[in-house]
Model the fold of this input.
Amino acid sequence: MVAGMTIDTQQPAARTPRTTPMAAPTVTATSAAAAPTLIRLEHINAFYGQKQALFDVNLDIPDNTVTAFIGASGCGKSTLLRCLNRMNDTIPSARVEGAIRMDGTDINSPAIDPVQVRTRIGMVFQKPNPFPMSIYDNIAYGPRTHKLHGSKADLDELVEKSLRRAALWDEVKDRLNKSGLGLSGGQQQRLVIARTLAVSPAVILMDEPCSALDPIATAHIEALIDQLREHTCIVIVTHSMAQAARVSQRTAFFHMGKLIESGPTDQIFTMPKLDQTQDYITGRFG
Amino acid sequence: MKQLTAATRARYFRRQLVNRVMGGLCIAAAGVGLILLALILWMLFSNGLAGLTLDTFTKPMSQPGSGGGLANAIIGSLLQVGVGAMIGAPLGMMVGVYLSEVGKESRFASIVRFVNDILLSAPSVLIGLFVYQIAVLPFGGFSGVAGSIALALIAMPIVARTTEDILRLVPQAYRDGAIALGSRENEVVGKVVLPAAFGGILTGILLAIARIAGETAPLLFTSLGNDIWSTDMTQPMASLPMAIVRYSNTPYPEWVALAWTGAMLITVGVLVLNIASRFSYAAVAGKQGG
Done:
């Protein structure tokens, strides 16, 4: 509190990041800074019919990092997330301009098959959506669709590995043939994450993955997100500022379809460069 | 309560009275329906059981006094309804999948949906006459195949409609989940949407079969009817509804009794199909729902 007041009364220069150690986040912040850019968004404009939802968004998303998109409802953060795996292609009136570069390829180009993009960039939705089939078949869906496995034993192993990575194996190993719909909300969300992991995506997009879950299930998912970061790039849309602060290393703040500010999460939350960001984070936002 | 004015109290009693009168009318209406249904079933079974013998299932139709049965009509009905369902159900399912998953609100889909609704309510005799023009006259005679085509044309719009309705009940979240895993359109429909809706679609098909099993008018101009034992579908073919029409209008008590028995057999068949559809739905839902 005292530090905050000091910043406010001093010159603007004091807002630039300082070298003061900030306890725990320092380690993650350093590793985030070291992570190479995996996806580069260049001049993204998105439209639904005549209405423009995103205005000239430019953003680098690093690998092995959790990037949080925050902002008020309707600010375009979910639209941008759905640009990344071409989900907007399924909405007839939607149009996305600009380049989304991943490994030097523009995955937003019409020449690129969206189905191939989606095998590399998985997605977890707001409401857990396991298919109405067994837990095993849910996980095996992706590998079977893309013929990723050889023998039945391969598939068994892949299913177990995916469930273990999603921290769900111990809870479901005795009921793999039971319906996925019989699980609790939090388990269903981890099942869906395991289903996504089974196709080994380089990126996982999460659209408010905890908004339908209770606090304990939320804590499970957040711990899981932190583990997954080791091998995957994660982009998460969240309405919870506290969640963004807990799970992400980088944060991008959106307002009315524009990217207002982005940077390391600890910096965005403690020393935002713009007053608009500060107002939103401190809840003084209209 | 003592604060209530006279006007408030009057309104309170009037509302209570209206509620009770309306509730009573609903129960009375349901009761009338149930009583009528019970009377029909009682008449059907009391008359039908009287004519039911082993001969009904083993002997074909024959002259009065010679102890005939309904075997050829039963087998004729099974064949024509079976082939009709095998043609109509897959076609109807494909139309339903197109309307729900591919065409959606497009102009062409709207036209198809409209035409399907017209076909759904078209008089069945019209369908019989249409098939007479395309499948009886050109091939020089009545046939079981023509009967099946007519029945298929009646079953198809029913299956199309129920398939579309059921597919629309499948949550969009399943489709999104499958798309996000890199499924193509056909994989989304074939591996996720259709299996999720399987119980409902099966119910629709069974109900369509129940409907065509009792149809008479479309068979009048197509398979005509036949008194002898025949499983050749290129020839005129007997069926239970046609046998009922033929036998009930005669002065021979033996034939009239067989007509009742035939009507009972159709009713029992439809009943079994309806019960089966409920079980199939519950079984599939149970397997998916955990």
Chain B has two domains: 6-51, 55-289. Chain B has a mean pLDDT of 91.
